[in-house]
Write a structure and sequence with these properties.
Keywords: Disulfide bond, FAD, Flavoprotein, Glycoprotein, Signal
Number of strands: 18
Helix content: 25-40%
CATH topology of the largest domain: Vanillyl-alcohol Oxidase, Chain A, domain 3
Pfam families: BBE (PF08031), FAD_binding_4 (PF01565)
Strand content: 15-25%
Distance between the termini: 24 Å
CATH architecture of the largest domain: 3-Layer(aba) Sandwich
InterPro entries: BBE (IPR012951), FAD-bd_PCMH (IPR016166), FAD-bd_PCMH-like_sf (IPR036318), FAD-bd_PCMH_sub1 (IPR016167), FAD-bd_PCMH_sub2 (IPR016169), Oxid_FAD_bind_N (IPR006094)
Number of helices: 16
Largest sheet: 7 strands, antiparallel
GO molecular function: FAD binding; oxidoreductase activity
Cofactor: FAD
CATH class of the largest domain: Alpha Beta
Strand order of the largest sheet: 15-12-14-13-17-18-16
Length: 504
C-alpha cells in the first residue's frame, strides 16, 4: 500500500482543488488533530491500521445529503477516488484503503431510522447500524423484525447492498429480498429513488455491492413478522463426545428443518481439540421447537433446559454475544474505537455433505492452525424459493450451507500475519474438492481479495473483474456490467472488486 506522503505527492494540484471544492463541508485532513481518531473509528481489521497503510487525502463525515452530493461532484471533477464507508466491516478494508489518491466518504453520522408500523416499512439511512435498525423497530412493535446480520455494528449501507445475511434468512430470505426502495447519489450528484433510478439499477444495488454504482443514502425496508417470544439455545459437543457424527448429520438435516428454525454450527479449537457449538433461533416457543428437532435431529441432544425464551429484540443481543439481561439500548451504542484484532476471512458454499473422513482431516488442520474457526450457516426454507436472478445475489437453491472461514491473531508483525494468512489459504485449498465448483462460489459480504482483484487505475479492468465476478455473482455478472455501463460508463465508482463497464 502507498503511504500518505506517496499519495499526497501523486497529484497535489488536483488534491488542492478538491479540498477547496469541499471547503465548507465537514472535512478532516491529516493536518487535523481529529483525523486519526475519525479514521480509526470504523477500522474493524487491525491489518489496515498500520503506519504503512495508505491514508486518505481527506475524510468527509457527511451530515446531510448535500454533503454526499458535493463530495461526489468534487471528487469526479478532480479525478480523485472515493471510498464509501458506513460500518467499516469490509474484511479487506476496501471501504477505507486504496492504492491511488482517495478520500473517505464516511456515512456514519447519517443514522436515522424511521419506522412506520402501520404500513410495515422503515426508511434506514446508510450510516445506521443493524443494531440501531433492530432497536428502532422494537421501539415501535414487539412483533416486527428485519432480516439482517447478527453483528450489531454492521453499517446498513454496505451490509444490505452486499446481500445482508442473518438468522431470519430461512424464513424471510436476505436483507436484499426485503428492500422495496432506496435513495442514492449517482455519478452526476443527483439524488434518485427507485422510480427515478430505474428497475435495473435498483436491482443492481440490492446484492451487487452499492459502491460500484452510486452512494447509498437510505434504504426502504419491508418489516417481517415475528412472535412476541422466540427461543434461542446453544448446544456444545467436542470430538471425544461424538461431534463428528453430529456435524455429519447436521449437514444432512439443517437445510431441511422447519423454516422457523435457524441452526448455525460454530467450529472452534478449544483446549487442543475441536468444539462444535450448535447455536439456534426458533420463531416460537420451546414446546413447539423440541418435537421438531428431536424428530429430525435427535443426535443434537437438545433439552428443554438448553432453551431460553425471550423477545426477538433480546435475541439479537444474545446472537451478538452479549450476556442475557443486557439492556437493549446496547444495540444503539457505537464504540469510539472498535476492539479489533488482525484477521483474514474466506467463504465457500457446500452442496453435498462433507464425508466423515474429510471431517477428520479438517479437525486436524484446525488444531494445527490454532487460530482458525468456521461458521456453517444452513440454507433451505425461503432461500430455496427465490430465483437466483431475482437479485444479483445468486447463491440460492442447491446449497446446503455457507462456510465462513476466519483466521485471527493478536501478535504484531508482518511475519506473523503472513504465516497465518498462508495457513488459511492452504486450508482453503484443501477444501476445494468439498465445496461448490465451476465456479467456486463466494459471498460478497465476506470480502476476500484472493479470489481476484483489479487495480482501479488500470484500463483492462473488465477482464480482471470477470475473475471474481463469476464467483460472486455467477450468471448475474453480465447484467451487472450492463447496468454499470449505463449509469457509470467512465468507471468513477471503482475499487479493487467493483463492477467494471464494457468500455474498460
Amino acid at each position: 500500500m502507498l503511504s500518505f506522503s506517496q499519495v499526497n505527492s501523486h497529484s497535489p494540484i488536483k488534491i488542492k482543488k478538491f479540498l477547496s471544492c469541499i471547503s465548507n463541508h465537514p472535512t478532516y485532513t491529516p493536518d487535523n488533530s481529529s483525523f486519526t481518531s475519525i479514521l480509526n473509528m470504523h477500522i474493524q481489521n487491525k491489518r489496515f491500521k498500520l503506519e504503512t497503510t495508505s491514508k486518505p487525502v481527506a475524510i468527509i463525515t457527511a451530515q446531510h445529503e448535500s454533503h454526499v452530493q458535493k463530495t461526489v461532484t468534487c471528487a469526479k471533477s478532480n479525478a480523485i477516488q472515493i471510498r464509501i464507508r458506513s460500518g467499516g466491516h469490509d474484511y479487506e478494508g476496501l471501504s477505507y484503503v486504496s492504492d491511488v489518491p482517495f478520500v473517505i466518504l464516511d456515512m456514519f453520522l447519517l443514522q436515522n431510522v424511521d419506522v412506520n408500523v402501520e404500513d410495515g416499512t422503515a426508511w434506514v439511512q446508510a450510516g445506521a447500524t443493524v443494531g440501531q435498525v433492530y432497536y428502532n423497530i422494537a421501539n415501535k412493535s414487539k412483533v416486527h423484525a428485519f432480516p439482517g446480520g447478527v453483528c450489531i455494528t454492521l453499517g446498513a449501507g454496505g451490509h444490505f447492498s452486499g446481500g445482508g445475511y442473518g438468522n431470519l434468512m430461512r424464513k424471510y430470505g436476505l436483507s436484499v429480498d426485503n428492500i422495496i426502495d432506496a435513495k442514492i447519489v449517482d455519478v452526476k450528484g443527483n439524488i434518485l429513488d427507485r422510480n427515478s433510478m430505474g428497475e435495473d439499477l435498483f436491482w443492481a444495488i440490492r446484492g451487487g455491492g452499492g459502491a460500484s454504482f452510486a452512494v447509498i443514502l437510505a434504504w426502504k425496508i419491508k418489516l417481517v413478522s415475528v412472535p412476541q417470544e422466540v427461543t434461542v439455545f446453544k448446544v456444545k459437543w467436542t470430538l471425544k463426545e461424538g461431534a463428528t457424527d453430529i456435524i455429519y448429520k447436521w449437514q444432512q438435516v439443517a437445510s431441511k428443518l422447519h423454516e422457523d428454525l435457524f441452526l448455525r454450527a460454530m467450529l472452534t479449537v478449544v483446549n487442543e481439540t475441536v468444539q462444535v457449538s450448535f447455536i439456534g433461533q426458533f420463531l416460537g416457543h420451546t414446546e413447539r421447537l423440541l418435537p421438531l428437532v428431536n424428530e429430525r435431529f435427535p443426535e443434537l441432544g437438545l433439552k428443554q433446559s438448553d432453551c431460553i425464551q425471550m423477545p426477538w429484540i433480546n435475541s439479537t443481543l444474545y446472537w451478538a454475544g452479549h450476556p442475557i439481561g443486557t439492556p437493549i439500548e446496547t444495540l444503539t451504542s457505537i464504540p469510539k474505537e472498535p476492539m479489533i484484532s488482525y484477521f483474514k476471512a474466506k467463504s465457500d458454499y457446500v452442496k453435498h455433505p462433507i464425508p466423515k473422513d474429510k471431517l477428520m482431516s479438517i479437525w486436524d488442520l484446525m488444531i494445527k492452525g490454532e487460530n482458525i474457526w468456521m461458521q456453517w450457516n444452513p440454507y433451505g426454507g425461503r432461500m430455496e424459493q427465490i430465483s437466483p436472478s431475482e437479485t444479483p445475489f445468486p447463491h440460492r437453491a442447491g446449497n446446503l450451507f455457507l462456510i465462513q472461514y476466519y483466521m485471527s491473531w493478536k501478535e504484531d508483525g508482518i511475519e506473523v500475519a503472513n504465516r497465518n494468512i498462508k495457513y488459511l489459504r492452504m486450508f482453503y485449498e484443501f477444501m476445494s474438492p468439498l465445496v461448490s465448483r465451476f465456479p467456486r462460489e463466494t459471498f460478497l459480504n465476506y470480502r476476500d481479495i484472493d479470489i481476484g482483484v483489479k487495480h482501479p487505475s488500470t484500463s483492462d479492468t473488465l477482464d480482471m473483474a470477470r475473475t471474481y465476478g463469476g464467483k460472486l455473482f455467477k450468471d448475474n455478472f453480465e447484467k451487472l456490467v450492463q447496468v454499470k455501463t449505463r449509469v457509470d460508463p467512465e468507471n468513477f465508482f471503482s475499487y479493487e472488486q467493483s463492477i467494471a463497464p464494457y468500455s474498460y
